[in-house]
Amino acid sequence: MKFWWNETDETELGNLLTELILQLKDDHVNRHTMNLDMLRMYTQRDYEGGANLNLRDYRISLNVIGNITDTLVSRIGKSKPKPMYLTRRGDYRLRQNAKRLTDVMEGIFYQTNIYDVMPKIFQDSCIFDLACMKIGREGSELFVERVFPNEILWDMNASMYADHPPSLHQIKSIPLETLILQFPEREEELRYSAATDDDGMMSSEEGHEAEMVECVESWHLPSMYDSDDGRHVIHMDNVILEDEQYTYSSFPFIFCKWGDALVGFAGISLAEQLKNIQM
Q1: pLDDT tens digits along 222-240
Q2: Residue 254 three-state SS
Q3: H or E stretch including 23?
Q4: pTM of the full structure
Q5: CA angle 165, 169, 173 (to 5 degrees)
């Protein structure tokens, strides 16, 4: 059996990842459906096939999930925790260095607007089985962003009794032109792939301002502490856009769960616990 993180041929790597993503999408259908059901109960709106909003009346007389979630977010989500550097029996110079490091971290938090994102992450943990905040770097600038939980895929069998899966994949719908600006050397392959794959793609000819395509970012953690099989790949279908070694021991995400499901990587949301009362 071939594993994508060990594949050296670029064409074969693209084919392996494309087949894997299709399989993982099928494996996560029930999870995605559950998340959308919980979203409907919270917002009292209907969503068809993901983020497509159907504005037919979905209101109920008493929105238990919405009321409790909003109350929790307003009371708990507004807190602003921050890391602090402390010394133990340190002299004046060491205490000053610790204070400067604390100030730097606080500045980074405000620069990345993390305190604006954190309440949304807590809200997601109340509604969905998994809340996710991505931390990354764009050029020389750090950024944090909320990730919709249905964008995240992993092998459920591999993470049945583990704290985290060995590999993680994020599926993101982005404008084709934006992808070409980021990877201009792959423009011809990207346009060809978009033209031959119309499944779920929104074309500008259909009344949309942008031609949206699915881009996948995949991570595999090193199998052992001193192993070198960690890998990070960005791809669209079988077109490999970026391929590099991944040496970190964790994914570039912060995960938040309302409750632990005991089995599997995903958790249990507050909405799932309250759905029988609301229904």
Answers
A1: 988 888 899 999 999 899 9
A2: strand
A3: helix 10-27
A4: 0.87
A5: 155
